[in-house]
């Protein structure tokens, strides 16, 4: 469950991102397909837990498609749009339903929120906005990227990067302190999904940060 959740977090980065930029309606249209597959898998005893995980992922995919397809020019809308499924997830949580999917969504959303917080703290939101508006002008985009990288490579940028990375690591490892999860009890599968989502976000962000650190200005 942990490895599958970790894999699903990387899907939007490497698959959805290029798809939604070119074919936003296709990307958004995949969402009900994911719901359907999730529902089918949950009717099969053997694959029920994977269907629940896919259910949480489908909401991440749908919200991401909506934002990056039509609203990506305004960074302030990113978290509100990604949070649209949150009331439903809270309802499922109170009903004790779809817990694997709910915890996957919560872990993924938390990782997104912390990543966005980093962008705000190092003041690269204006660069994000400019890059989205100028995406057809490759020269201007390159200039904006150089400026954003310079911001990230400052002392404060590196300090915030380390602090937020440690926060993600701590949050992602918290479930390990529950004795049940170390014993592999099936009821703890939601915790594994949460850990996979959070720690995979840390890995993706870490690779991004490492790349920035190695780039010459």
UniProtKB/TrEMBL annotation:
What the entry lists under Pfam families is as follows:
DUF3120 (PF11318)
The membrane-spanning stretches of this chain are 25-41, 53-70, 100-122, 159-177, 189-215
Q: Which InterPro entries match?
A: DUF3120 (IPR021468)
The keyword Iron-sulfur appears for this protein: no
Keywords carried by this UniProt record: Membrane, Transmembrane, Transmembrane helix
Q: Which domain of life is it from?
A: Bacteria
DNA-binding listed as a keyword: no
What is the designated name of this protein?
DUF3120 domain-containing protein
Question: Which organism does this sequence originate in?
Answer: Parathermosynechococcus lividus PCC 6715
């Amino acid at each position: 469950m942990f490895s599958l959740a970790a894999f699903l977090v990387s899907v939007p980065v490497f698959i959805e991102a290029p798809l939604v930029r070119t074919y936003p309606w296709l990307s958004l249209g995949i969402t009900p397909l994911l719901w359907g597959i999730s529902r089918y898998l949950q009717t099969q005893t053997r694959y029920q837990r994977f269907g629940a995980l896919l259910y949480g992922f489908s909401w991440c995919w749908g919200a991401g498609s909506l934002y990056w397809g039509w609203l990506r020019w305004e960074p302030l809308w990113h978290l509100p749009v990604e949070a649209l499924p949150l009331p439903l997830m809270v309802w499922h949580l109170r009903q004790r339903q779809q817990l694997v999917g709910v915890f996957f969504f919560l872990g993924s959303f938390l990782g997104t929120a912390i990543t966005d917080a980093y962008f705000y703290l190092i003041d690269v939101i204006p660069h994000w906005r400019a890059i989205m508006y100028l995406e057809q002008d490759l020269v201007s985009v390159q200039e904006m990227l150089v400026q954003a990288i310079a911001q990230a490579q400052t002392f404060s940028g590196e300090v915030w990067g380390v602090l937020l990375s440690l926060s993600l690591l701590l949050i992602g490892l918290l479930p390990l302190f529950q004795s049940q999860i170390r014993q592999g009890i099936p009821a703890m599968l939601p915790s594994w999904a949460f850990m996979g989502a959070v720690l995979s976000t840390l890995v993706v962000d870490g690779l991004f940060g490492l790349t920035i650190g190695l780039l010459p200005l």
